[in-house]
Amino acid sequence: MIETTIGADITSITLDRPHRRNALTPDGLDALQAAVEECETSVICLHGAGPAFCAGADLDVVADLGREEAAAFAEQGQRVARAIAESPAVVIAAIDGAARGGGVELALACDLRVATPAATFAETGVRLGLFGAWGGTVRLPRVVGEGNAMDLALSGRTVDAETALRMGLVSRVTDDPTEVAREVAANDPAALERLQPLLRDRGTAAARERAEREAFADLVTRNADALRDR
């Protein structure tokens, strides 16, 4: 489910569930968190296997959750996103293909988001009576601004890589996102380690995340039948 390749300066972490568009289960989230926290290189490059980056949460799992379980699943996703956001490594999302829902949220937790021309982005949860609850309501407005965040989250529309670049959702569009990882890794590791925390927004989002997962759990409970029948 999670494949890790360790190089001299870059650890590549691949979400490896292509038959499910790399949708994440609780076990997959645990494995991703462990891979990030065990990294000892200065740069992490996060990939998706196959034609998608990540479809987010596995909706087959979500549909069967009770209210408390839904809140716990949202908290787990938030915990993984925090592990990415707080990693001492520079974390780069190499987005090729579709990023949806929680896949966008995991990318938002990364330091850099680099897309290929084939990348597309959408917060589609609203179309299922849900929303992204892995820290997305906290991070999306910070990254793209409130107006763009409202547009993406409330419409559920899909945007291509060039639109994402104009919004600030990604920082570059390139045929090979790993080139950016190599560019960053070529710099002094000590400088990266000192600079990166200064650039990150370290303000606490705990209260907003708690409200986010409670609202998500309410919606899962309300829309369980529709999720099963989707």
From TrEMBL:
One of its GO terms (molecular function) is catalytic activity. Pfam families: ECH_1 (PF00378). It comes from the Archaea. Belongs to the enoyl-CoA hydratase/isomerase family. This is Enoyl-CoA hydratase. It comes from Halococcus salifodinae DSM 8989.
